[in-house]
Amino acid sequence: GGNIEGVAAASRIYFDKPVSALTLPESLTLAVLPQDPSRRVRNDGGSTPGLGDNLRAARERLYRRWEQLHGADASNRALFDLPLRLRPARDLPFAAPHAVEQVLAESRLAGHADPVIRTTLDARLQSVLERQVHDYLGQRRVNGLLNASALLVDTRDMGIKAMVGSADYFDASIAGQVNGTAAKRSPGSTLKPFIYALALDQGVLHPRTMLRDVPTSFGPFTPENFDGRFLGPVSATDALIRSRNIPAVYVASQLHDPDLYGFLKSAGISRLASERHYGLALVLGGGEVTMQELATLYATLANHGQLRPLRLRADDAQAPGVRLLSAEASFVAIDMLRQNPRPDDASATASARLPVAWKTGTSWSFRDAWSAGTFGPYVLVVWLGNFDGAGNPSLIGVEAAAPLFFRVIDAMKAEHADLAEPAWRIPAGVKRIEVCLASGDLPNAWCPRRGDAWFLPGKSPIRVSTVHRLVHIDTRSGRVACPPYDPLTTTEQVVEYWPSDLAKVFRDAGLPRARPPEDGDCASGVDGDPPRITSPLRGASYTLRRKANTDRRITFNATADGSVHSLYWFVDDAYVGSSDAGKPLAWDAATAGRHRVRAVDDRGRADSRELVVDVVE
Fold this sequence. Notes:
It is a single chain. By secondary structure, this protein is an alpha+beta fold. Helices cover 27% and strands 21% of the residues. The protein has 16 helices and 21 strands. The strands form seven sheets. Strands 2-1-9-8-7 form a five-stranded antiparallel beta sheet, sandwiched between helices. 38% of the residues are buried.
């Protein structure tokens, strides 16, 4: 009847059983349906529950023919006295429609014609996910949040345990039949954990490394933080969990072999444009990934750096995996993400809840709100947005996606009290070391506050902190004293020497640091860092116009040690001017070609880089 073809399909639909399990009355019912399906499948008031008079009469006639051929059997007659109900096709179970459509499409593409397909889906977990998405959107509809997708993956076998492709498969107003877990969307900041994991592997940082959250230009790219503020010095862990953009872009700029683009290509992220197309904007969601691809990346962290493909068919072989990150970097990255506090209950202790390593993301123009992470043996990714790309100021990852993310986790924990994380063993290549909290470097003798940090021997950067320095002060002038030190006129003092860019952030935030004392009439002997040129950007080319009255000035700038007062600038060994520490200098680029720019501080320490100038008409 209708679009139901074959006795096997009819048996499943009308009686919810395979043909081999049908009783004689059920078999005869299906036998007479094709003669007049439009009338006989409808209940037209007959006395037998679920059967219309027309269908019941037709079946009775067929049974009498049966008795003529096979003889009367009292047990068969007794079966006909039992109530028989046909399940309407509209009452068929309709769980995980997007997952079902995906697995059928993949089977057709592979040329399979399996009569039965067993998936990795878990009906109970699917129900939890569907219910939480439905209830959450019901509460947030007033904020214009109308659609969501969610994906739950078991990292132990990479089986997809639950998939919600949209909030309502039958709602055409939200394009409900679109499978949001397979749609390409901007991931916002959800890729940042992999920047830091790569940096851990490449020796760029460790979790306590202090990064600069200060106004910074990376050639023509000048990123800003989501809140428009700058925090100054911030540890790598805080930069990650607080989703600071400037440190993330800086860290990404230090990566090589692979950088983030190469990592994503190795991970099989599809339909990426060229690396030049994205530049450093890829760090902040400039590319697009699917929810399934993002879940695979987070599962790579949980699986000790091994990339393994997702599975939706239960009979798909479990792939051995390809190593993209070291077990050590994966362990530390997960630990960093676990320090991200819940947005709804920051005071909850880790022991009271299942540990969760998670990250949010918000795309440009508030089109996508994400939350992704690991808990127990699972990876969970949730997305809120609109399939047509319409933006909404409410689509902020931590405000829109994170609450749904934790609702799902709490619901699963409530229904599975024994839910626990597979045992994590600390990799042999990870150690704990003591660092100076102000700088993230190894503490010198004068560092007042110290703490522990994970460290990857042979990879993590090693240097001694120079923020706190013991200085001899001339009590008469307040300047750095010159040796030999007279105990009657000199005193020892620990002084903080902050680089010029960080000192400016402290001043702008209303938290100025004491300016280090000026030097005496001799070399002070105070150790410090050489200048670090921030403009021009390393590897950048500047294209200028030749015509008159065109501004052809290029800005030079550098970060200087806290003990430095002046910087001296040279181009091709020719002196071009001086600037106060932390202040820019404008250079008139008169000639095209390659130039060597050099910054020298008033202690004789220097930094240099190559500059390319092109002149066009």
